[in-house]
Amino acid sequence: MKTQANLEPLRLRTSTGLVPLAYVREGPRVWLVAQYGAARWAVEILRTGRAELELPEGAHAGGCRLVAESLHRAAVLDRFTEKYGADQVARWFRPAGRVVEVVLGSVAQGGTGATAYFEWLEAEFDSIAADYDRHILGNRINRLLRDRSVAFMRRHLPPAGRLLEIGCGSGTETLELLADGHEIVAVDISQAMLDTVVTKARGRGLEARLRVVKLRAGELDRLLAQEGPRAFDGIYSTYGALNCEPDLTPLPPTVAALLRPGGLFVAGVFNRWCGFEMGVYGLLMRPRRAFGRWGRPVAVEASRFCVDAFAYSVPEFCRIFSHHFRVVAVEGAPVLLPPSDLTRYVEMIARRFRTLDAVDAAIGRRFPFSWLGDHFLVGMEPSIRRGG
Question: Which of 1-5, 305-309, 383-387 shows the lowest mean pLDDT across its residues?
């Protein structure tokens, strides 16, 4: 029988104060659940791998981690239903987002600082791998972004070359380029994402030209050691992996070393200067949203990512690569259409979407609009040609 005492919430200490949360507990293990897409507290504690809690009997601290395994998540949600009732759980978590486990008295689980951050990043993408295609293909703007990046690469990359993909996700671009005849080495921080790509490639008979390696963007020096210099005709990374790296400065020399003479590097980047957001939210007098991408990392409420995102303007991003690359093409995507998180506005123009998409694509290739997209695509070639 439920009592008021065992339904009393704990309080989580955050940078903005104490947050009351429902919880279930078994010995030193405490589980918390965040509503999907609406809990900055979860980002804050997972970023550091540590949580400070005020439970009914007193204050405790412990290491925390994201529960990514589907069976474990389901078991925790069953415990919440048993404790609070199905109706209440449905009101709180419809749908459920992150499930966080805190072990009282332990240190940060797995590590601290950068180690904790990248372990969190890996767990986040492992947890959404099975549902990632629905997230991408079920959203018109996300589909637009993938179509634009594939079209951009088809225009600028050499045909049927050997490519490196940095952050392949579930392979929505990988499969298209494999079908075009390219050979691809795909790297990702998430083994679950890599397994998804391999399964999809096998299903289309394309696995012979695909190799996957579990690496994050900041670990490309390990791939250089395996593959040797000048191993790829083209390298690309779109809409994620580069924006999850807190520091991109070690990347340009490694990318340049991996490219063959005449090769191209293509990046799709979350843009600090989003013209749509700055214009619309500026008119609505909501400066935190108008300029929400200017923080490092981007403020949780201004980011649609499940993890920290580090946005860049076109000049800022190109400056990081300028000692090793020169820019050959820039395209904003999208520029006039709303970003992917503003789906209610996108559906209002659904009947004219194809026409507006074509207009947006044409405008997005023209300066200054190429600098003002939700994302931007940039193609770069090595600034110094290397001999054979």
Answer: 1-5
Angle separating helix axes 191-203 and 113-128, nearest 10 degrees = 30
Whether the CB-CB separation of 11 and 54 falls below 8 Å is answered with: yes
Other Cβ atoms within 10 Å of 107 Cβ, number: 13
Beta partners for 186? 165, 212
Q: Which domain holds residue 313?
A: 133-382
Nearest CA to 307 out of 124, 33, 68, 176 is that of: 124
Residue 60 confidence (pLDDT): 92
Closest-CA residue to 129 (of 202, 182, 76, 200)? 200
- Could you report the per-residue pLDDT of 179-238, keeping only the tens digit for each? 999 999 999 999 999 999 999 999 999 999 999 999 999 999 999 999 999 999 999 999
CATH code, domain carrying 238: 3.40.50.150
- Alpha carbon of residue 98 to chain centroid: 15
Residue 365 · residue 359 · CB < 8 Å: no
**Whether 69 and 185 share a structural domain:** no
pLDDT in tens, 104-126: 987 655 555 677 788 888 888 88
Report helix, strand or coil for 292.
Answer: helix
- Smallest CA-to-CA distance from 105 within 56, 44, 63 is with 63
Give residues with Cβ within 8 angstroms of 188, minimum separation 6: 125, 167, 168, 169, 194, 197, 212, 214, 215, 216, 241
Q: Which residue do the tokens 């990514």 mark?
A: 68
Q: Which CATH number goes with the domain that contains 31?
A: 2.30.110.10
Predicted structure pTM score: 0.86
